[in-house]
Amino acid sequence: MSEELTGRRGIVTGGGGGIGLGVARAMIEAGARVALLDREGDGLQRGVEELGDRAIAVTADVTDPAQVGAAVERVRSELGGLDFVVNCAGVRYEASFLDHDLDMWRKTLDVNVIGSFLCSQAAARVMLEAGGGKIVNIASFAGELALRNRVAYCASKAAVIGLTKATALELAEHGINCNAIAPGVTETPLTAHYFQDEERRAAVVSNIPSGHWAMPPDIAGPIVFLCSAAADYVHGVTLFVDGGWVAGKGY
Ligand SMILES: NC(=O)c1ccc[n+]([C@@H]2O[C@H](COP(=O)([O-])OP(=O)(O)OC[C@H]3O[C@@H](n4cnc5c(N)ncnc54)[C@H](O)[C@@H]3O)[C@@H](O)[C@H]2O)c1
Hints:
This protein is of the alpha/beta class. The chain has one domain (9-241): Rossmann fold. The chain is 43% helix and 15% strand. It is built from 7 helices and 7 strands, in the order βαβαβαβαβαβααβ. It has helices at residues 18-29, 42-51, 65-79, 102-130, 151-171, 198-206, 216-226; strands spanning 9-13, 33-38, 55-59, 84-87, 133-138, 176-183, 238-241. It has a 7-stranded parallel sheet with strand order 3-2-1-4-5-6-7, sandwiched between helices. α4 links the parallel β4 and β5 (133-138). The structure holds nicotinamide-adenine-dinucleotide. Nicotinamide-adenine-dinucleotide binds at residues 13-14, 16-20, 38-39, 41, 43, 61-63, 88-92, 111, 115, 138, 140, 183, 185-186, 188-191.
């Protein structure tokens, strides 16, 4: 990976594990300093120890505006500015349409949609003063394709795609780019149970034209691009990084 983010400073939410940790690692390899933002937990501390002195840990709940505001201020002061935010924090519950619990529905929207909005809004206020910055939301192929037993999750990720376009529309004139990445199935703690079941593994792979599911570095590379100067003229797009799953739904 080249050094296209040298000197940049940013936040990766959900950085305590899975895709977020992979993204933080790629950002650091590209020259950035990164704040891993996550809920209280071992993952955050372990992540920072693993990534070394260009990473800091910030504990916050993305659904709480006061915690998000304090976290962004802390990052601005400790890293000396804020050039990008990647909204990776997310939750997903599996339940059938007929049995879906309302609390799970609200939590899904709260973390995946409102949490992304709150972090982007707080970050954008800082970026505005500096004359620009990059926001990357993590949508999902499930924002485009319907998946069984994930009605709230699919709705939340379709909302993230809409949030991305509406954010881009208002922030482009301020030099702030907002885009989204829509990962396909990626091996992380969120999806670990898929890979224990041979039938499910085969079903997943049969849908992926490239023939394999993703690992976090597959998702991180395009995010580095969207946070770099090479993407200065890219606004409001959702880039599917799914091994061709969505494109391959034709015949
Ligand atoms: N893994 C996949 O197959 C896949 C596919 C498409 C999209 N995604 C999306 O990618 C993102 C990362 O997923 P992952 O697979 O790495 O999941 P993960 O469960 O490994 O990581 C999610 C992280 O978000 C954090 N988080 C959850 N709620 C939070 C809150 N309120 N405040 C702060 N942090 C919070 C968790 O602590 C965790 O560290 C999610 O938005 C997910 O929907 C994942």
